[in-house]
């Protein structure tokens, strides 16, 4: 297992190199520059050209890329043009918010999806199954940003149950008040994100349980008098969880990288909102670092999914 993991990690190195080149070129190909909005618009273009020149933005792309790689191996991702701070520091300040929001969303997703999938699968063709399928079809058909906007409007502005911006109240002080304030700011976006993410997991689990129920080994166990409770516990559930395990790693990393809509609508200061602001202000260093980080997370998701799959089913071996 450890040799396989090491081999997968080594394979990730050329993939990250190719990704870094593509991301660097695409960022440089964006129209505009990072300095136009930072100076007096009455000044001439000479100042902008001077800033572009001293920051090396007029150098050939391969020279810029080489300087960026050299600094990368020294732990330096460059300086943000917008915030005038090291990119590593800016990302570190925002990564914690995104991590905790993604973790809470993932926990709520599986807490909701697993019982629904199991319940629908066990009651195939009955009213319970129909209600669960209606719920999954409804959540799959409505765009994610519509769910977020409606949830923010109803529970945030209408009922005023939850805050709709920020990550912590400015009046909170002390460990426990700050912790409760952070949790209060995360509950609404996490619940909305979990409700949207449960549909696919519920459908996969329901289909897996139904397929397992009608398999030959379940029928054989029933003919031998094995109780259904034991059959579900030791045979059906374990096999039905295989597709869920296959996507577990992607779910974790997808929540970390796919929180752009959530953070934008709720003004939540995480990496997603930082990424959108970097695009708006042509902050090339931040854009390159974040896209490379998201690419690395996706590759790690593949590895985590394979490991989880092999842990649930010993017959599956990570090749």
TrEMBL record:
Gene3D superfamilies listed in its UniProt record: MetI-like (1.10.3720.10)
Predominant cellular place of this UniProt entry's protein: membrane
Domain (ABC transmembrane type-1): residue spans on this chain: 95-305
Name this polypeptide is given: Peptide ABC transporter permease
Topology with respect to the bilayer: Multi-pass membrane protein
Annotated keywords: Cell membrane, Membrane, Transmembrane, Transmembrane helix, Transport
Record carries keyword tRNA processing: no
Cellular-component GO terms for this entry: plasma membrane
Family the UniProt entry places it in: Belongs to the binding-protein-dependent transport system permease family.
GO annotation terms (biological process): transmembrane transport
InterPro entries: BPD_transp_1_N, MetI-like, MetI-like_sf
Coiled coil: none
Highest taxon above the source species: Bacteria
Residue ranges of the TM segments: 9-27, 99-122, 134-155, 175-197, 240-266, 286-309
Naturally occurring in which organism (per UniProt): Philodulcilactobacillus myokoensis
Localization (cell): Cell membrane
């Amino acid at each position: 297992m450890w040799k396989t993991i090491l081999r997968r990690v080594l394979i990730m190195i050329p993939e990250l190199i190719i990704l870094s080149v593509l991301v660097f070129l695409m960022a440089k190909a964006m129209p505009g520059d990072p300095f136009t909005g930072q100076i007096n618009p009455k000044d001439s273009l000479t100042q902008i050209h001077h800033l572009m020149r001293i920051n090396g933005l007029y150098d050939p792309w391969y020279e810029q890329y080489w300087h960026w790689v050299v600094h990368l191996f020294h732990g330096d991702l460059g300086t943000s043009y917008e915030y005038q701070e090291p990119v590593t520091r800016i990302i570190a300040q925002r990564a914690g918010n995104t991590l905790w929001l993604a973790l809470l969303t993932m926990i709520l997703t599986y807490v909701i999806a697993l019982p629904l999938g199991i319940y629908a699968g066990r009651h195939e063709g009955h009213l319970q199954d129909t209600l669960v399928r209606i719920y999954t079809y409804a959540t799959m058909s409505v765009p994610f940003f519509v769910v977020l906007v409606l949830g923010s409007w109803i529970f945030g502005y209408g009922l005023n149950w939850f805050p709709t911006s920020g990550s912590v109240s400015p009046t909170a002080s002390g460990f426990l008040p700050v912790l409760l304030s952070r949790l209060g700011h995360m509950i609404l976006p996490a619940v909305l994100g979990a409700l949207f993410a449960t549909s696919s997991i519920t459908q996969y689990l329901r289909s897996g349980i139904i397929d397992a129920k009608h398999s030959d080994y379940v029928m054989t166990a029933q003919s031998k008098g094995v109780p259904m409770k034991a059959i579900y516990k030791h045979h059906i559930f374990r096999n039905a969880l295989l597709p869920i395990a296959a996507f577990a790693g992607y779910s974790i990393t997808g929540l970390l990288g796919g929180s752009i809509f959530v953070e934008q609508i709720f003004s939540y200061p995480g990496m997603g909102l930082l990424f959108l602001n970097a695009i708006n202000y042509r902050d090339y260093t931040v854009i390159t670092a974040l896209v490379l980080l998201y690419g690395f997370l996706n590759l790690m998701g593949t590895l985590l999914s394979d490991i989880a799959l092999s842990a649930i089913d010993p017959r599956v071996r990570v090749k």
